[in-house]
Amino acid sequence: MDALSNLFEGFGTALTPMNLVWVVVGALLGTAVGVLPGLGSAMAVALLLPVTFTLEPTSALIMFAGVYFGGLFGDSISGILMNTPGNSTAIAGTFEGHRMAKNGRAPQALATSAIGAFIGGIVATTLVVFFAPTLASLATNFGPAEYFALAVFAFIATSAVVSDSVLKGLSALLIGLTLAVIGIDGPSGASRFTFEVPSLFDGVHIVVITVAMLALGEVIHVASKIGKPDDTTLIPSKGRPFLTRSEFREALPAWMRGTAFGVPFGVIPAGGAEVPSFLAYGTERRLDRRRPNPMFGKGAIRGVAGPEAAGNSTAGTAMGALLALGLPTSATAAILLAAFQQYGIQPGPLLFDRNGEIVWALIASLFVGMVVLLILNLPFAPLWAQLLRIPKNYLYAGITVFASLGVYASSASVVDLMFMLGLGVIGFMLRRFGIPLAPVLIAVILGPLAEDSLRRALAVSEGDATILIGSGITVVLYTLMIIAVVFSAVTKVRSRRRVDF
Question: Which residues are listed as membrane-spanning (predicted)?
Answer without folding.
Answer: 20-49, 61-82, 109-132, 144-163, 169-188, 200-223, 318-339, 359-382, 394-421, 465-490
